[in-house]
């Protein structure tokens, strides 16, 4: 197994303020390497416990397994139950050593429920597969490995760290103001936030995540006068619901485009009648070729990079919807449970620069900002408006949310080293 442990004996620190931590950072580097097998074993045990979002006992069990790792490190750990949202709950751990507060974000749940055939950790050399292995059980193990290395080096004792691991990142409970209440509160008092979703990698190059787009859903319902199709387009019947739906969606396609904005249509139906189920996932319709459609319904998502872009897109979508074809109606409704964006801010950029200083000192390649259009939404979006945030601090992997999801086990070493050194330096400010 090839592990990267660069330049340990020639570590050069950038400023006199950091000189006091040189020996500690050497210990951090060596400890992460020495405990690598221990953390692979922990990853295997976590992966082999199903914690699909709706498997509430499984999510709770994974939370207890993480509690068992954090309490010996001196963290006060509590469980925030989420019965009111239909979810298991969140694990919140605090270590008040004074200094700057660093918020570490991850999640306990996965997209793989108990009925998925993909349930087991399998290792082949430096690569391993398993449900949620990278998203986000690998991220949780990186957090634990970093904190253990800090304890060994003596840098944890004086650090002020909050860990929030949500139990419903993949399928948030409702209402969202309750489901994300604890995370938002932690973000408002933090000085920095680090999110431990998977590391962004392309063609072997590793990137830093300073931005993520939002994720919200919408439902569009159109109506028309029904009757014999010989009257379609006429003064009496007009165009019907399906033509109105087609007009709106095609105008979205032609008039909305701008960088980092997408608006997917995921499901659609039209006829006499047509409807969508209460969950918003399944549509039904019936009709005949000689009947003008009475109803059409479509559901999709909207992803934006900034709150300003989100407001602009929604306003433009609403204006397009209101410009009806004759004898038709249309209504656009946005769901209230969307994920806000993690906008690219100067503070986030500066935090990546701090990480790149760590990379230089550890002999690791510097990281350019990753294209936010290539990343999904994450819990970091709920804190990014209040605190400088850096994402993608978890393990490198492939195939998230799909059977065969895998990680590069060696990346756990690099990421835990980076995180532990960065947390220690930020705490000293």
From TrEMBL:
Gene3D superfamilies: 3.30.70.360, Zn peptidases
Chain ranges of the Peptidase M20 dimerisation domain: 210-328
InterPro entries: ArgE/DapE_CS, Bact_exopeptidase_dim_dom, Peptidase_M20, Peptidase_M20_dimer, Peptidase_M20A
Signal peptide feature range: 1-19
SUPFAM superfamilies the UniProt entry points to: Bacterial exopeptidase dimerisation domain, Zn-dependent exopeptidases
Entry cofactors: Zn(2+)
UniProt keyword annotation of Zinc present: yes
Pfam families, sorted: M20_dimer, Peptidase_M20
Top-level division of the source organism's lineage: Bacteria
Keyword vocabulary terms for this entry: Hydrolase, Metal-binding, Signal, Zinc
Name of this chain's protein: M20/M25/M40 family metallo-hydrolase
Source organism of the structure: Brevundimonas staleyi
